[in-house]
Amino acid sequence: VQLVESGGGLVQAGDSLRLSCAASGRTSSRYVMGWFRQAPGKEREFVAGIMWSETMSDSANSVKGRFTISRDNAKNTVYLQMNSLKPEDTAVYYCAAGSRWPMDEEDFVTYWGQGTQVTVSS
């Protein structure tokens, strides 16, 4: 499975961005999909995850109420809508796929994307 992120960029605090992750290869709509991020000098951390059936999703406390994860299984694509962005959201955002729920730890991830940079200026 190959995961390719897009949609990152440089924005100002309070702005919105939508990240996309397109899956290809031996794809399966039954994978748990998610997003992690890594800020400079920090460890990679869980951001949000969504079950294959879209009936369950989860997100980190730091982004609850601001970020929304969704998926379109027909397009093999998962999205991360990020609103009210803050400078502390600056990081490389990675798309992830796995078979465990909740997929809130790196060890639970089977496939990773290459990452997309999100920079939020104050």
User: Which range does the strand content fall in?
Assistant: over 45%
pLDDT < 50 stretches: none
Counted beta strands: 11
Largest sheet: 7 strands, mixed
- The chain-level structural class is mainly beta
Q: What is the CA-CA span between the terminal residues?
A: 37 Å
| Oligomeric nature of the chains | single chain
Q: Radius of gyration over alpha carbons?
A: 13 Å
Determine the number of helices (DSSP H or I, runs of at least 4 residues). Answer: 0
Average the pLDDT over all residues and give the rounded result.
94
* Shape estimate: globular
Question: What proportion of the residues is helical, as a percent range?
Answer: under 10%
The arrangement of helices and strands along the chain is EEEEEEEEEEE
Secondary structure layout:
Blueprint: E1 2-6, E2 9-12, E3 17-24, E4 32-38, E5 45-50, E6 57-59, E7 67-72, E8 77-82, E9 91-98, E10 111-112, E11 116-121
